[in-house]
Amino acid sequence: MGNQAMNKSDLILLGAFVLVVLFAPQLFAPIGAGYPDLLQKFAIYGIFALGFNILFGLTGYLSFGHAAFLGVGSYSAVWCFKLLSMNPLPALVFAILFGGLFAAAIGFISLRRTGIYFSILTLAFAQMSYNLAYSVLTPITNGETGLQLAQSDPRLIDMMFGRDYGAVLPPSDLFGIEMTGYSGYYFCAVLLIVCFFLSLRIFRSPFGLMLRGLKSNQNRMAYTGLNIRPYALSAFIISGMYAGLAGGLLAITDPLAGAERMQWTASGEVVLMTILGGAGTLLGPVIGATFIKYFENIFSAFNDGILNQVFDFLPDTAREIMVSISSLFVGEGWNLTLGALFMLIVIFLPGGLIEGVKRIRTSVGKLFRGGGGDGKSPKSAPAE
Amino acid sequence: MDAILLQILNGLDKGGAYALIALGLTIIFGTLGVVNFAHGALFMLGAFCAVAFKALLTMQKISIDPTQMTAWGTPMEIRVPYVEAWFGDFGATLLDYSVPLSILIAIPVMLLLGIVMERGLIRFFYRRPHADQILVTFGLAIVLQEIIRSFFGANPIPLPAPEAAMGMIDFGAALGFDAGSVVYPAWRLLYFLFSLAIVGAVLAFLQFTSFGMVVRAGMADRETVGLLGIDIDRRFTIVFGLAAVVAGLAGVMYTPILSPDYHMGMDFLVLSFVVVVVGGMGSLSGAVVAGFTLGILQSFASMNEVKAIFPGIDQIIIYLIAVGILLVRPRGLMGRKGVMEH
User: Fold this and answer.
1) Angular region, B229: left φ>0, alpha ψ -120 to 50, beta rest
2) How far is B295 from chain A (nearest CA, A)?
């Protein structure tokens, strides 16, 4: 079963995904997002959310500590830069490896419990790592300042090949291609495509089916004689490796790792990305991550001056009221928007944007076919 | 010995705050079966009731006194809080006692807020999975804390304790040690006693009143109580309000110990969840016992002698204990069977 060819619709999906990712600079240009720094963020957080979705979307285990793996990935990548080489490939290998190892250790303990207990355990572990990174582990993490590159770093492999960066701090480069600007984006984009492909294969594999079984009825699975623990643990480790990869990429595009990446609000953000797009769907997490990072970028840049322009068409009093209300949500208040969005999505659209699109499609279909519908109720669409 | 006693005392006030928040959390688990990630935000809102009350009291009347000059040669502005201008000495006393007095406004405000929250949001989530409950209350917590931030700013706002409670109490001589060896701030002691009183009041309310009896019956078997013709939903709403009041009061009285800022709720929430888990979900006495125990253990772990052996232990001891407890006694210290197991 494992090696059957991909069916047609999956191939189309993958093809479309590849096209969109590769032509993202052109596609996103009209909405003002066609520049590499932001596109990189889309790709990196897309990878992070894809990994989280393999755990949460398929198995239903809600982890509130995934930012810890992201942080570990960043730290190990930066250490790899410092000790070995500025080439991103070994850094990524280490980031994935340590993300996975860390996830294996935490998952091994946390997965002994389910439901809310699991969420609290992962939260506790993540907070523990965050606190340690700030205090005792300062020699490794450089505490509040964040781990940075220095000119005096050994960079053993680079030394071996006689590369000397001189007095400037080197950017990371892939055999001479600097990981900045568009080359940085395309590096992330290729990895995003690989991750998406892997996630697609997992979704369609017998293993993915087992994970879905975990979500719908663990007892029944256990009674049929299956040992469920290894399945859940593998899903946890895989998603930890995705997070480690994302953390490593963050460090590659900007070689600085800080402990605030591990804070539990960061864990909350990836949960939001996943459910916003649609947990348990293939594309949902990437869409959610893109959506959030795009609006974060826009909203954070807003200030009262821009708001005044936006509401310029209103009479003065109405404009002032609108500006004072909406200024709560922009600039520094982006977190408020995030929280409100979180609530709205959970309350009205638990299946995320993907479900929203499906609902609209169904109702439009009904409209045209005189209320007949296509026989698919929207509720059967999202993650079972 | 005196050092040990001092650490126990140091842990009591923090333990009191944990116990009060965890008590509210566990009551909500037990009655409504809802995981409330916004409970820390209620604690924070309570603290900001005190801030708002103080701000209200210190609204100043500014008058210009032409006879006096400042060092810059401009007429001196005289700023007198209205309460002092109107009530004289009594007004000054009011100002001094603003923190304990803000309890008076915190109770109705928090009760109302709790009831609105339950009716407006939480009740739609009774039948939804726990993951959804966690997510929606997490979102609510962010919204609440960001609203507070936009009104009061991001910096901690110091609130002093009343002058009478600002001093230190020396237990050393009274307990037979050297004088000055066990010194403890009076307000912290007061906080400990206050939290004991609140815990006692809540437990007594649930144990000895007929309202509390119905609530306890509802916790055990909601459906049967409903069949007996009792509107259990309304009582549970009030219980939610009560839990909000408890968290709010814990926050009000904690302000002199820790200057409130907008994210204090999140910091306490994570720890309080751990406390609830250690004590056992849905167990009231478990939450209280675990709250004080963990507070005291945390203060022991921050002793220099302990930190020399296990560096960083003060940061993680609570989480370590929680992990240990969950693995050894999955229901917590005093957890009941059948609560929050699905």
Assistant:
1) left
2) 16
What are the backbone angles phi and psi of residue B311, rounded to the nearest 5°? -60, 140
Domain ranges of chain A: 8-300, 302-348, 350-384
d(CA A274, CA A277): 5
Contact B323 A121 (CB under 8 A): yes
CA of A147 to nearest chain B CA: how many angstroms apart?
19
Task: Look at A343 and B140 and tell me if their CB atoms are within 8 Å.
Answer: yes
Predicted confidence at residue B42, as pLDDT, reads: 93
Smallest Cβ–Cβ distance between A347 and the set B130, B136, B319 belongs to B136
Instruction: Look up residue A370 and give its two tokens.
Output: 């005189």
B338 is a domain residue? no
Residue B68: half-sphere exposure toward Cβ, Cα within 13 Å: 7
Is the distance from CB of A282 to CB of A199 less than 8 angstroms? yes
Residue A156 phi, psi (nearest 5): -55, -45
Contacts of A201 (CB under 8 A, 6+ apart): none
Domain count, chain B: 1
Q: Was domain A8-300 assigned CATH 1.10.3470? A: yes
- The reply to whether B340 falls in a domain is no
Is residue B139 included in any domain, yes or no? Answer: yes
Query: What are A223's two structure tokens?
Result: 């009674």
Question: Residues in chain A whose beta carbon is closer than 8 A to a beta carbon of chain B?
Answer: 60, 62, 64, 109, 112-113, 115-117, 119-121, 123-125, 127-128, 131-132, 134-137, 264-265, 268, 271, 275, 328, 332-333, 335-336, 338-343, 346-347, 350
- The pLDDT assigned to A379 comes to 44
Task: Tell me if chain A has a CB within 8 Å of the CB of B326.
Answer: yes
* Complex prediction ipTM: 0.80
Confidence of residue B339 (pLDDT cuts 50, 70, 90): low
> With an 8 Å Cβ cutoff, are B142 and A135 in contact?
no
pLDDT digits (tens, 9 = 90+) for A304-317: 777 777 777 777 77
Beta bridge partners of B62: B79
| A88 Cβ neighbours under 8 A, 6+ residues apart | A77, A172, A173, A174, A179, A187, A248, A252
Chain B 188-207, residues with CB within 8 Å of chain A CB atoms: none
- The answer to whether the Cβ–Cβ distance between B319 and A113 falls below 8 Å is no
| Residue numbers in B near A336 (CB within 8 A) | 142-143, 146-147, 150
Task: Tell me the angle at which helices B284-301 and B313-328 cross, rounded to the nearest 10 degrees.
Answer: 140
B338 touching chain A per CB within 8 A: no
The mean pLDDT value for A141-165 works out to: 73
Give, in order, the Cα–Cα distances in Å from B86 to each of A11, A187, A357, B50: 79, 70, 62, 21
| Torsion angle of C-alpha atoms B23, B24, B29, B30, degrees rounded to 10 | 60
Task: Report CA-CA distances (Å) from B292 to A279, B118, B250, B269.
Answer: 39, 28, 14, 15
Between chain A and chain B, the number of residue pairs with CB atoms below 8 A apart is 111
Given CB atoms, is B136 within the 8 Å cutoff of chain A? yes
